């Protein structure tokens, strides 16, 4: 990911700063010379010899630059002076080294993530500028971080990912630092397949410590899939909130301990449980408390994350609160929809409406127990007044009762987490049907679930959308949805998507801008239909699937990048079917007592919006924050002009990355706006620019690149879905 960089990231030590200044001062001269022998205390450059001999990374001494802790290698396309290379290969080695050293100083000296000992103290971290190698065109990753040969850290960055203020640079360095927690040591480190989500969530968390307010991970994914298992690969870039909870509960140093004291056989939650000295029940209670905080996203850094929440697609936060199904409405008996029941350490947020102001609310909650799943539930009530939450106690078990004394004027929520008796250890890409869910039913006294209370009204649909008359789900004003199609109360249709015929959108499924669902197709559970994808006929897409192409038959229940629309049956679901409990089994005995009041935290003010984040492109594009819904007026100034050139730098099925070069005319300009007319799809990430509108795509300057000198230019870029061929590209100066 990349984003606009604040003025200062961290303060290096004096010695480190002096060494860095010298290294950068000499970089243009040293880059053209063979590396000089290192002093005894200096870090050495260690590069696998096979890289040069096999052409895997055919580096040369005149295409190399160094600083105290890093060595940057680039390919033939960028030449020996990459600052003047063609636009698609252009980057500044000195700037890359400067920002890497800043981030390194933060992680080592400020955050103290892992000690600067062992292999970290021996060798400089290797940085490869991808897409610049004529000898190996396959070296084209956008941004990755890791290690090689069990010895040295490696970062891969495309030129576009090295732009000033690169979030991706900091994120990938975080991955390298994670590697150094176990490099050169056996039996330690998060190397178990179940740790994948924790790696990405931690890298986002670490970048957020270094660059507070700049970005907040992939909140679109996370907010929409809070019900999925915590370790789901569908929301790994947004799952940092659990780490923030641990930081606020036990301190930042404890987060570092989790990484440095992990065992290679452990799931990260097993490591946390062991180091914190918790029982499984105590861990489960902490998970429930973390889930309860996410009614309002109640964190110490809320001022930093709220602007990013505010920019999400308008249906996401409101629909993160799930509407229950009625089992026997006359008995106040309801159930979570089976397809979106919480997974392991996932959770369901339910708004409940008290029957009278200040009513005592009682609940009897019973789960459908599956011994193979180690079924368990942990839940609690949250009262919210003017955005400020107060929390009831956590209740745990498979068949329990609880109560909550409400206050007049507050909104009330019940948050239910799936908390098994042991930590499941699924692989990173083990999807929806391979993970157990924890369905539950409940009866209420003194309140009803939102959507079932007398005279219920959902009010005005957010974001200028509408509630679909057949099902009550959210539909964008730009979408085309037939009255015969069904959009359920928790489902959504965004942007210029189309749903026709007798198609059904159920559960927490949503159809993104440019997606099409037709015929008798069903999209359900937590499935996502991206732009350019067409689902029709009798196809069923459910679970956490995100198919590509056109599907007219078959069942697809899992995200599987290797599966195409083959018309085959769905993947086998480990969850066994169940019936409904008789209402009598959920009778409320009244044996519970209201909890003691809890302290009311101070409300956190919401600041103005910060510059937009620019996440790393991955093999599977993912939707993120929605742009601002209105376009600021951009007055033109006589004599001031600009031009814009548009280049598609990479493509894949359903998506692409493009760069735009904005160049000022004969006079300096104070600002610019670029309009790109694209045939379909939408922008899901951007860097060095603000997305002002999606159709047509309108780009504006970031905080740092509004002013351009006469004849000078700036490169910006974005990742989009749908077609990449632009019919027109225009630039307006002011």
TrEMBL record:
Biased composition regions of type Gly residues, renumbered to the chain: 461-474
Annotated Pro residues bias: 594-614
Keyword terms: Glycosidase, Hydrolase, Signal
Domain CBM2: 635-734
Keyword Signal carried by entry: yes
GO process terms (BP): carbohydrate metabolic process
Source organism, top-level taxon: Bacteria
Region feature Disordered, mapped onto this chain: 446-474, 562-581, 589-641
Signal peptide annotation: 1-40
PROSITE patterns, alphabetized: CBM2 (PS51173)
Alphabetized InterPro entries for the sequence: CBD2, CBM2/CBM3_carb-bd_dom_sf, CBM2_carb-bd_dom_sf, DUF6055, Trimer_LpxA-like_sf
GO terms for MF: hydrolase activity, hydrolyzing O-glycosyl compounds; polysaccharide binding
One Pfam family matching this protein: CBM_2
SUPFAM superfamilies listed in its UniProt record: Carbohydrate-binding domain, Trimeric LpxA-like enzymes
UniProt name for this protein: CBM2 domain-containing protein
Taxonomic placement: Bacteria, Bacillati, Actinomycetota, Actinomycetes, Micrococcales
């Amino acid at each position: 990911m990349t984003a606009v960089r604040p003025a200062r990231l961290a303060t290096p030590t004096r010695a480190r700063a002096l060494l860095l200044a010298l290294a950068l001062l000499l970089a243009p001269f040293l880059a053209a010379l063979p590396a000089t022998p290192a002093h005894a205390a200096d870090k050495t450059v260690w590069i696998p010899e096979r890289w040069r001999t096999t052409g895997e990374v055919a580096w040369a001494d005149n295409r190399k630059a160094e600083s105290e802790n890093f060595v940057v290698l680039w390919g033939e396309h960028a030449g020996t002076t990459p600052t003047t290379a063609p636009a698609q290969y252009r980057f500044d080695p000195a700037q890359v080294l400067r920002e890497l050293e800043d981030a390194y100083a933060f992680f080592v000296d400020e955050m103290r993530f892992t000690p600067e000992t062992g292999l970290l103290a021996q060798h400089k971290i290797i940085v490869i500028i991808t897409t610049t190698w004529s000898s190996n065109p396959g070296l084209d990753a956008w941004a990755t971080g890791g290690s090689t040969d069990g010895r040295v850290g490696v970062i891969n960055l495309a030129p576009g990912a090295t732009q000033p203020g690169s979030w991706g640079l900091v994120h990938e360095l975080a991955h390298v630092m994670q590697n150094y927690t176990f490099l050169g040591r056996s039996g330690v480190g998060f190397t178990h397949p179940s740790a994948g989500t924790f790696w990405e969530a931690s890298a986002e968390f670490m970048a957020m410590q270094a660059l507070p307010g700049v970005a907040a991970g992939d909140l679109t994914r996370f907010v929409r899939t809070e019900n999925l298992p915590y370790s789901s690969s569908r929301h790994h870039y947004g799952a940092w909130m659990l780490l923030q909870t641990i930081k606020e509960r036990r301190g930042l140093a404890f987060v570092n301990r989790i990484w440095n004291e992990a065992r290679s056989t452990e799931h990260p939650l097993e490591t946390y449980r062991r180091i914190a000295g918790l029982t499984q029940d105590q861990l489960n209670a902490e998970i429930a408390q973390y889930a309860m905080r996410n009614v309002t996203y109640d964190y110490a850094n809320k001022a930093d994350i709220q602007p990013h929440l505010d920019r999400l697609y308008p249906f996401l936060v409101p629909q993160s609160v799930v509407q229950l199904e009625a089992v026997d409405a006359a008995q106040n008996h309801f159930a979570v929809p089976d397809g979106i029941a919480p997974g392991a350490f996932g959770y369901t947020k339910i708004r409940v409406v008290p029957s009278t102001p200040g009513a005592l609310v009682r609940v009897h909650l019973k789960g459908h127990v599956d011994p193979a799943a180690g079924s368990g539930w942990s839940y609690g009530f949250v009262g919210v007044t003017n955005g400020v939450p107060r929390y009831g106690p956590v209740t745990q078990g498979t068949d329990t009762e609880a109560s909550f004394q409400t206050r007049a004027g507050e909104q009330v929520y019940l948050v239910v987490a799936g908390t098994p008796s042991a930590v499941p250890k699924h692989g990173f890409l083990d999807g929806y049907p391979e993970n157990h869910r924890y369905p539950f039913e409940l009866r209420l006294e003194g309140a009803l679930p939102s959507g079932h209370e007398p005279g219920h009204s959902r009010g005005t649909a957010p974001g200028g959308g509408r509630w679909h008359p057949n099902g009550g789900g959210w539909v964008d004003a730009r979408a085309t949805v037939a009255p015969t199609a069904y959009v359920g109360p928790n489902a959504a249709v965004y942007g210029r998507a189309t749903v026709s015929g007798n198609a059904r959108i159920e559960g927490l499924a949503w159809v993104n801008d440019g997606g099409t669902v037709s015929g008798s197709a069903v999209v359900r559970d937590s499935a996502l239909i991206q732009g350019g994808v067409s689902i029709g006929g009798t196809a069923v897409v459910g679970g956490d699937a995100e198919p590509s192409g056109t599907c007219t038959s078959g069942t697809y229940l899992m995200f599987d990048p290797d599966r195409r629309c083959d018309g085959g049956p769905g993947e086998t679901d480990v969850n066994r079917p169940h019936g409904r409990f008789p209402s009598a089994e959920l009778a409320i005995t009244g044996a519970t007592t209201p909890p003691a009041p809890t302290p009311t935290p101070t409300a956190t003010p919401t600041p103005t919006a910060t510059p937009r984040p620019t996440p790393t492109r991955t093999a599977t594009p993912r939707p993120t924050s929605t742009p601002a819904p209105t376009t600021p007026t951009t007055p033109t100034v006589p004599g001031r002009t600009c031009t814009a050139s548009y280049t598609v730098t990479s493509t894949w099925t359903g998506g692409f990355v493009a760069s735009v070069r904005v160049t000022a005319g004969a006079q300096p300009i104070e600002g610019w706006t670029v309009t790109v007319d694209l045939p379909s799809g939408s922008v899901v990430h951007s860097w060095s620019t603000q997305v002002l509108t999606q159709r047509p795509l309108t780009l504006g300057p970031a905080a740092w690149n509004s002013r351009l000198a006469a004849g000078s230019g700036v490169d910006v870029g974005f990742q989009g879905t749908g077609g990449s061929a632009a019919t027109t590209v225009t630039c307006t100066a002011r």
